[in-house]
């Protein structure tokens, strides 16, 4: 970017603000600057934490959207306002169409409630407020959609719902990403050997969206609505879903672990593996034996060596994260995405080189291999010059795992033999 556009910094003006604050935390001068000089608004800012207190989620995701809308109403030459939501904003439905559904609560009342009531009281009442929603994130994003939808006759709005955004397909590089979320955390945890059991349906097909395709969709949708002046309100919601190009949980983990075998992570706790179960009791037992007990042993060794124990805390966070994600790893959704797919058709042939959102040519196996390699490079910052040594360590762990399992089996058979022999002699 610096090579192609040396004056890129001159095109950006940074403003101080906070989406969770009233009036977005903008100064009067900055607000007037936006009102006079902005014509297109992208509302992407949001908290994506599943465990946010309801007060925080509503203030950031719902009230923040209201504040953006109120600002847009003042902008003199607004051409388009695009609100980024999520395909899971209506996750209480197994099939989600490209439309805004009736609200689960009145967004005005919810904003007023979190502004007036003590956060502690709201925490106690959270389950009652969110109803059939699994967490405060999806609930607050659902209400935010209704904020935008109610202003569709006053503003030129677009609602774009990406599914689970993960590593890039092509741009800026294959496999690029700058943050860890659910699927990438599973790949890292599995590759590092700290995630060995997971509460998930191995056959569930999760809907993933490469980050660069999601960004292309955002740009293309805004361009399309500005140039073609789209008036049809049935065409303003886009489910940015990969739908026919998604993979099952088992296949995702298989591809990730296979790549991790060829390009192993450093500082691995144990040889990579993963076990899926849909039974919560079975998961709890597996987590105890495969996660917590090894963590206790490692932390004990660290303490004896006068080093800070940390693995138990890591495993506690992993357990909480898996539990929070289980609603999404145990269930399947179908996202209708005709509006999204039709976006590609409005592009000129020469524009499709840079802005096409067509996923028909994506090689799923190659994509997830690149995604795993991207994790090594861009998030974990693995040193490839040490890859040979890392492979040797991984090979040693592999055989140690096999030997210990064999010894465990021998011990079990020997114990059974002793037990039955003792029972026979006593009889």
From TrEMBL:
GO terms for cellular component: peroxisome. It catalyses: a long-chain fatty acyl-CoA + 2 NADPH + 2 H(+) = a long-chain primary fatty alcohol + 2 NADP(+) + CoA. Residues 6-218 form the Thioester reductase (TE) domain. It holds the Pfam family Sterile. Keywords: Lipid biosynthesis, Lipid metabolism, NADP, Oxidoreductase. One of its GO terms (molecular function) is alcohol-forming long-chain fatty acyl-CoA reductase activity. CDD domains: FAR-N_SDR_e, FAR_C. It comes from the Eukaryota. Residues 291-382 form the Fatty acyl-CoA reductase C-terminal domain. InterPro entries: FAR (IPR026055), FAR_C (IPR033640), FAR_NAD-bd (IPR013120), NAD(P)-bd_dom_sf (IPR036291). Its EC number is 1.2.1.84. GO terms for biological process: long-chain fatty-acyl-CoA metabolic process. Belongs to the fatty acyl-CoA reductase family. Catalyzes the reduction of fatty acyl-CoA to fatty alcohols. PANTHER family: FATTY ACYL-COA REDUCTASE, MALE STERILITY PROTEIN 2-RELATED. This is Fatty acyl-CoA reductase. It comes from Clastoptera arizonana (Arizona spittle bug).
